[in-house]
From TrEMBL:
This is Rhamnogalacturonan endolyase. It comes from Trifolium subterraneum. Signal peptide: none annotated. One of its GO terms (molecular function) is carbohydrate binding. Residues 99-171, 185-297 form the Rhamnogalacturonan lyase domain. It comes from the Eukaryota.
Amino acid sequence: MFLSAHYAGEDIVLKLQPNEPWKKVLGPTFVYLNTLLDGNEDPLELWEDAKYQMNKEVQSWPYDFPASDDFQNSNQRGSVCGTLLVLDRCVSDECIIAQGAYIGLAPPGDVGSWQRECKGYQFWTKANEEGFFSINNIRSGDYNLYAWVPGFIGEYWNNGVLKITPGCEINVGGIIYEPPRDGPTLWEIGIPDRSAAEFYVPDPNPKFINKLFIDHPDKFRQYGLWERYAELYPNEDLIYTVGISDYTKDWFYAQVTRKKNDGTYQGTTWQIKFNLDDVEPNGIYKLRLALACANVSELQ
């Protein structure tokens, strides 16, 4: 399945206007069939061998054997490098190294447009411990630079068009992301990193246990976890008290409906309780939310 709205929704459904020309190279695809050597009965050897082969294929990309003119080989592509820093004056007067940041090139758009883009090509990487990033083997074309940094809300977008030509090596130097900020943070629940993994993830129903994810850090991948909310909160909804509650134990990983005994579903309302010692009567206080994802829902 090369184009799909699965796990994403209507926003990335491919939409073409009447008579709009479009084509996109997908592939080549690779199927690797391996086998255990005589006398070896450990199935994990197959897994390790497959990972080894995958790394070899990654190093070989882009392949030089496709004959299609639409598949660009390595000398028809370019590269972009640079360093990403974060400037958040409520955290530090100095720029912060954006270690582990995700940096990508996608068709020109606006903030966050890469998430809804499916017609063109995107190329992504992660910044190293110094905030340095390098994106290689980029198809020729026009791109914007996008980025987001785990631990900082919002995302970076540079509206300058990067024109990739065969063999080009573009160094954008140091770029600085300034997260949206109106004042110091009074309280925070969780980590803005496009994931809900840090919140409370219940144990799965024994009937639905996936053995691949037993004692695995991605516990949230177990099936049917959302239904556990009704068991944990059968009558009243979640109440979180800032300074007392622990989001790893007291904040359910997903806000879901409550399944009732008659098979219907009831909307849920969570509460956050907090105290402010000093309140500015005419001050403006902002609540910022970072959503990992949403499905058939709206924020009210």
